[in-house]
Amino acid sequence: MKRCEKLLGFGINSRELVYISSVLILILSCVESSGFNDNFDISWGTVQLLNNGQTAQLTMDKSSGSGFQSKNEHLFGSLSMSIKLVSGNSAGTVTSYYMSSDASASHDELDYEFLGNLPGKPYTLQTNVFANGVGSREQRLNLWFDPTAGFHNYSILWNQKQIVFWVDSTPIRVFKNNEEAAGIPYPNSRAMRILTSLWNGENWATDGGRVKIDWSQAPFVASYQSFEVNACSAPSNSSPPCANNWWEQPEFGSLNQQQLSKLDWVRKNYMTYDYCNDASGRFSATPAECAFNP
Questions:
Q1: What's the pLDDT score for residue 241?
Q2: Mind telling me the catalytic residues?
Q3: Are 53 and 11 in contact (CB under 8 A)?
Q4: CA 20 to 30 Å from 125, out of 89, 133, 197, 222?
């Protein structure tokens, strides 16, 4: 296990990371700042590097989408990416940014998926959590800004107590670790790689698949920059947690009252689907973790 509080990525400057509203306040003690090719591999399709490698553009046309992934895997910590989504008629497109341990049946995964839409209609942000191969934990919300007009920050705090999804400085989802208390699987032993992709999801992404991709609008482009990770690097099959890292400090084990208020604001005003409240008969019983998560 390699233990290091570090910053890796592209299009970034060494600096203090401060999440407004007391989300995270830290000073990096071990900083590495380098280019895209030092930290990422293009996994498929066409990825264009712009602004001296500070911005990576994923493209999709009828022949192929595209994606890139980190060279390293990480076990616990904080990571973020600034993304500008596909503009115009993005219906049927899916822009993703996620962490995944591997492709096995027992894999762990933390997802951001941005589901495109027709002009004038809002993007849907879908998050999901897989633990020990168990997923189907979708939450969906409409963003309170235009995600195609500029870059916005999407980040994950992942420690042994909780996983928090953020949009800029606003928490939008919490998944608590109740593995010991209630036997609910939690991602706590498999290192995960960071992946991105822009792909064809027209069979389900927009209005349940009723609105298809307008290929006359291709190529579709999504832009990524300012990737930041402050985490433990680990080999693929590493299981021991890192020790004495800031993200395991008590103040990061739960949201404070101000953060809980912001989370409640998002849920009341922008959430469009929560698997915990699904009334379609999809689940025979409410999933157990729903009783523990804010």
A1: 52
A2: 109, 113
A3: yes
A4: 133
Q: Count of CB atoms within 10 A of residue 141's CB?
A: 22
Six-digit token pair at 64? Answer: 């192929």
Residue 203 burial (10 A CB sphere; 0-12, 13-18, 19+):
exposed
What are the beta bridge partners of residue 164? 157, 174
Residue with tokens 């689940």, as numbered in its chain = 283
Q: How many CB atoms lie within 10 A of CB 171?
A: 25
Please answer whether residues 166 and 97 qualify as being in contact, where contact means their C-beta atoms are separated by less than 8 angstroms. Answer: no
Integer Cα distance of 201 and 124 in angstroms: 13
For the chain of 294 residues, list the mean pLDDT of each consecutive stretch of 10.
46 40 37 66 95 92 97 92 97 97 89 97 97 95 97 97 97 97 93 96 96 98 92 62 77 96 98 96 94 94
Residue 258, φ and ψ in degrees, nearest 5:
-65, -40
Q: Where are the alpha helices (DSSP H) in 21-178?
A: 36-39
